[in-house]
Amino acid sequence: xxxxxxxxxxxxxxxxxxxxxxxxxxxxxxxxxxxxxxxxxxxxxxxxxxxxxxxxxxxxxxxxxxxxxxxxxxxxxxxxxxxxxxxxxxxxxxxxxxxxxxxxxxxxxxxxxxxxxxxxxxxxxxxxxxxxxxxxxxxxxxxxxxxxxxxxxxxxxxxxxxxxxxxxxxxxxxxxxxxxxxxxxxxxxxxxxxxxxxxxxxxxxxxxxxxxxxxxxxxxxxxxxxxxxxxxxxxxxxxxx
Length: 241
Fold this sequence. Notes:
Blueprint: E1 2-7, H1 19-26, E2 32-39, E3 52-56, H2 66-80, E4 84-88, H3 91-104, E5 109-112, E6 114-118, E7 122-129, E8 134-139, E9 146-150, E10 166-169, E11 200-203, H4 214-221, E12 224-227, H5 229-233
Parallel strand pairs: 1-2, 1-4, 2-3, 3-10, 4-9, 5-9, 11-12
Antiparallel strand pairs: 6-7, 7-8
Helix pairs in contact: 2-3
């Protein structure tokens, strides 16, 4: 039986379940023991989908302590010897994944968007390369664990699970302290997820300073406006359109 560990999507807990589809494609013909690691007490959305949920409380781990999260995951891997470790490619996941790969002395395939099996080469993890101009198939070798960060929203787990989920608390002690403290906080501004748009009007580098004109077209078509990275980097559009 294979063992897979999924680290929580810190932006949307329910989206953590979608990484199960990635696991299913990695091991289509094998039984998999599925473990999730979550920060805090919220885990009900994962009940029935995983064999085991491991909670890390704030008493054990301070907020933003990504080095501490890495230390927890290393300890869990030493205890359970996972065959694969999946981390969502969120801002928090991008902080955790390379640290964890280095600590485990294993490779990391970042921003995975697909998984395929090809005769002769075995498992390939697909990710964009050269700014998305090509898709690269990365073949994994060695003894593992296979480590990958998964781009949010590319996998969707539709199956209904009826596993007897066991939820346990991580009770170990950590050597790593964050050294960070919160001085102030404010709510995250609400932005529209363009992946939910039925009609999308997108402006690239060629539109220049006339980007605002897209708003009129979007209103006429009942559409949502989006921008390329080049437009945002030039300050012609906001990241939270």
